[in-house]
Write a structure and sequence with these properties.
It is a single chain. The protein is α+β, with helices and mostly antiparallel strands. It has a single domain, classed as Winged helix-like DNA-binding domain superfamily/Winged helix DNA-binding domain (Arc Repressor Mutant, subunit A, Orthogonal Bundle), CATH 1.10.10. Helices cover about 40% and strands about 25% of the residues. Strands 1-3-2 form a 3-stranded antiparallel β-sheet. The protein is globular, with a radius of gyration of 13 Å.
């Protein structure tokens, strides 16, 4: 297991950020859909994809690693971001 970054308790979305950071430390880089599914299964109220995307992109504890192509029946295929633990500066 990799090291989980120290997260300040007074920031908004503290529980969501710490849950995602622990998940990424245990499993390694994951895509947005897998992270959202993990959070929704393991927590009581869960999160929306919009909230999770904003937290991942704006809080500074996570880095974009790359893209994964997802196949879909209706629209062909689309790209999903892959996230990993980053260093907050």
């Amino acid at each position: 297991m990799r090291e989980v970054p120290i997260i300040k308790k007074k920031i908004r979305h503290y529980k969501l950020i710490s849950k995602v950071a622990r998940y990424l430390a245990e499993t390694g880089p994951q895509n947005t859909t897998a992270i959202c599914e993990h959070v929704n299964v393991t927590s009581r109220h869960g999160t929306t994809m919009n909230e999770l995307g904003n937290v991942l992109a704006k809080c500074g504890y996570f880095d974009k690693v790359g893209f994964e192509e997802q196949r879909s029946i209706g629209s062909g295929h689309y790209k999903i971001l892959v996230w990993d633990i980053g260093v907050k500066e």
